[in-house]
Amino acid sequence: MKSSLIFSIFILLFIVACTRTSPSGQTTDPIPTPPVVPEKTETYTFGNAIFKGSGNEPFWALEIDENQTLMIKSIDDHQLKLIAPITEITRVNDANATKLSANLSDKKLTVMLIENGCQDNMSGKKSSHALQVVIKDANTKETILYKGCGAFLNAYLVNNNWELESINGKNISDLPTEKAPTLNINLLEKKVNGFAGCNTFFGDVTIKKERLIFGNIGQTKKACKDNTVEPVYINLLNSTTQKHSITKEGKLFIKDAKNTFTFKSTS
Which CATH code fits 156-265? Predict the structure, then answer.
């Protein structure tokens, strides 16, 4: 009997403690506890690499995947492993470079792919691009700079600046054209431009296995007297059957239904 009375008093005190009183003296419901919101984390998956680069002293590495995601790793004091989608791609014509931007909650990443060739300062290996990677930390205000070399991989080796060398085995210097046509392919921006033999051109480009798919090709309207190369070259860009390949020597072959074009790299 005594224990039951004590238990009842305890329950009454608990109920009173869990209620609050309004200014008018009326009791109201207990204040609800806000739900716990889990902390958000930034996780991105990384696909098949289309570009790889690295640097020494300290060692660091950069990869870009087919979905335009950056991955940066280092084994210096920072011990970085950052993965972030590219948010902006900008052409920097003065530097002959492509600027890539990406952001994490506490870091801003900027990558410069510079198309002037590069040689590793330890191995001596040559690559198509010089690299600069800048990482700015929003919390510490620290800026990290990495420099190195890199190149596109496999089918993406076509991402380069090219000059036409021959058509069906005939050297371009023996053909009626003002000067050698060019083909500048930027698969990150999905843009192409160049010189067709008399007029300049520009448009869109994507890659699908061994096919380069050009679209929305526009060109200047200069009169091209006796220039038979340009019409054939523009037909190549508009072809739906052309295929390309890269030789062991680093040359680009593009073949349509009638002609085979051989390009050399100018980077």
Answer: 2.40.128.270
